[in-house]
Write a structure and sequence with these properties.
The complex is a heterodimer of chains A (236) and B (307). Chain A is of the alpha/beta class. Helix content of chain A is 39%, strand content 28%. Chain A contains ten helices and ten strands. The N and C termini of chain A lie far apart (36 Å). Chain B has helices at 2-32, 39-59, 64-91, 100-121, 146-168, 170-180, 182-187, 192-218, 225-240, 245-269, 279-293, and strands spanning 126-127, 136-139, 142-145, 220-221. In chain B, α5 packs antiparallel against α8 (192-218), α6 crosses α8 (192-218) and α10 crosses α11. The A-B interface holds A 50-52, 71-74, 76-77, 81-82, 84, 88-93, 97, 100-102, 104-105, 149, 153 and B 170, 173-174, 176-177, 180-181, 183-192.
């Protein structure tokens, strides 16, 4: 059974109907990519799934439960975690405080401390800067903070909104390597990316979103090979 | 020399009160970007409740120190409930409205509370009972009494406690996170409404303490006492840099000192033309002077980045 199952989801954002009825699934342990151009509704999809936006209609089932009446702050407790577009790092909190915010919903103090060290092992750069205010970090480091922070909540489904945005190529490679690692540990991932090639290279399946509708859904390798996708999103 | 020291003592006492009230303004502003003009009235309600409770308990024959403590606790509890109710009823429905709407509402809440207090407690000045021994101590040619010592000590304690709460606890971290980015905080599992309610309640508890301090210091309680005090404390918060806790503390103490020194020396300086009744002018003069040179206050950050 799917961990996440979305059916005929419609949502408006800023007076515009951004989602016109999309359906998608993420199975347990799967890495799924959602690609599409600017304004296709990718971020709106994730915001709606995280509970920051209310859908106009349609259903979201996560872990077999309808998310309709569950507020955003409650969804994290159920293991549904979003790294938002633009990262949403708390600039005036230190790196360590940001990670502690990630563990806000937990109260297993000893385990939190151990997980903090795990994050510092995963991102050694953050260990060096743990007492620094997060706002003083580079974009790539802030993306690391945002991902580590989300992992601190022990998500079952991690949703990433444009993790490569604005990053130097080396940093993008590092971030995507980490995404594969996280996925290998069994965390389900829904990855939204404008960089379609990168996303489809790490994902198992993919969806293509165009003006609020899903136009293609297939395995990642098939999408990478499809002429439509190549022309529209891979620049080839 | 003794006048200078005396005015400094008076200024520190008044400044402690301003600082506690200013913290309430600055905390709410920091988290909602709203100037809660009803906050001065919460101070007044704290004073009124403390007066009512101490009147009853003294009549029942309890020892004054115990009465003081109980009056403080009840006043804090009532003000916390009031702060919670103000946010819940007046501000929360306007959370996503244009900024002018909650501002006007805040002024409305302030007027409503003033009028309710007037109906409830009357227009007259009430004498606040002397609950502390009130012994005076000579101090380098100046005089300081027990009430003033306690006011300064309690204010310092509350401010230190608040800093620890905001900077060292899970709740404080959540408050700072909500202040900076509410939706990101929600994604961390923070219930934003709860954090905002708690912020109002903490600010209101500090206001209750300040209300009791003012009443104990001057021995007078009045339904209109919150207006000017609130305005001055708001001035102090802006002076220090609104949204910044340390700024509110610094601004409060500075404002108290400026006023007190101004009142003490204005007669001499103006050759008797202005009297000490012009002390209120100093508060606002200081505000204008600071804002001309540092528009975001003494410890404030540049606001342009936020807008």
């Amino acid at each position: 059974m799917s961990l996440l199952s979305v059916e005929n989801l419609k949502a408006s954002y800023g007076g515009i109907q951004a989602l016109k009825g999309i359906s998608l699934e993420v199975a347990q342990g799967e890495l799924v990519a959602l690609i599409g151009s600017n304004g296709a509704g990718k971020s709106t999809t994730l915001k709606t799934l995280a509970g920051l936006l209310h859908p106009a209609s349609g259903s979201i089932h996560y872990d077999g439960i309808s998310m309709h009446d569950i507020p955003a702050h409650q969804r994290v407790r159920d293991g549904l975690s979003l790294v938002p577009e633009g990262r949403g790092v708390f600039a005036r909190l230190s790196v360590e405080e940001n990670l502690q915010m990630g563990a806000y919903i937990r109260n297993d103090t000893a385990q939190i401390a151990a997980d903090l060290e795990r994050m510092y092992a995963l991102f050694p750069r953050l260990a060096e800067r743990r007492a620094q205010l997060a706002g003083t970090l580079s974009g790539g480091e802030q993306q690391m903070v945002a991902m580590a922070r989300a992992l601190m909540s022990k998500p079952k489904l991690l949703m990433l909104d444009e993790p490569s945005m604005g990053l130097a190529p080396m940093m993008v490679a590092k971030i995507f390597e980490t995404i594969s690692d996280i996925s290998a540990q069994g965390v389900s991932i829904l990855l939204v990316e404008q960089n379609a090639r990168l996303a489809l290279e790490v994902a198992r399946r993919g969806y293509v979103l165009e003006s609020g509708l899903i136009t293609l859904a297939d395995s990642a390798s098939n999408l990478l090979g499809s002429d439509e996708v190549r022309r529209a999103y891979l620049g080839a | 020399m003794d006048i200078l020291l005396q005015q400094i003592i008076n200024g520190l006492v008044q400044g402690s009160v301003y600082a506690l009230v200013a913290l309430g303004y600055t905390m709410v502003y920091g988290i909602l970007g709203l100037i809660n003009f009803a906050h001065g009235e919460v101070v007044m309600v704290g004073a009124m409740v403390a007066l009512a409770v101490s009147g009853m308990l003294l009549a029942a024959g309890l020892p004054p120190l115990l009465v003081l403590l109980l009056a403080l606790l009840v006043a804090m509890a009532v003000c916390m409930a009031l702060g919670y109710a103000i946010e819940r009823i007046a501000y929360r429905p306007l959370r996503n409205a244009p900024r002018l709407a909650p501002l006007i509402t805040a002024i409305g809440v302030s007027i409503v509370l003033q009028n309710l207090a007037m109906i409830f407690w009357g227009r007259e000045y009430h004498a606040f009972p002397q609950l502390l021994p009130g012994a005076s101590h000579g101090f380098g040619g100046a005089i300081i009494n027990d009430v003033q010592i306690i006011i300064i000590a309690v204010a310092l304690l509350m401010m230190a406690g608040l800093l620890v709460l905001v900077h060292r606890t899970r709740l404080g971290r959540a408050m700072r996170a909500v202040a900076e980015n509410p939706s990101a905080a929600a994604l961390m599992g923070v219930d934003i409404n709860t954090v905002i309610s708690v912020t109002f309640m903490i600010g209101s508890a500090l206001a209750a303490v300040a209300g009791l301090m003012v009443s104990a210091n001057y021995g007078i309680v009045h339904y209109y006492m919150g207006f000017l005090l609130g305005l001055k404390a708001f001035t102090a918060a802006v002076l220090g840099g609104i949204g910044n806790l340390r700024g509110a503390m610094l601004g409060g103490v500075l404002l108290g000192l400026i006023e007190s020194l101004g009142a003490g020396y204005i007669g001499d300086l103006s050759g008797g033309f202005f009297g000490s009744n012009y002390q209120d002018v100093f508060a606002f003069f200081a505000l204008i002077a600071v804002l001309v040179f540092r528009p975001s206050g003494l410890l404030g950050e540049r606001v342009a980045e936020r807008a």
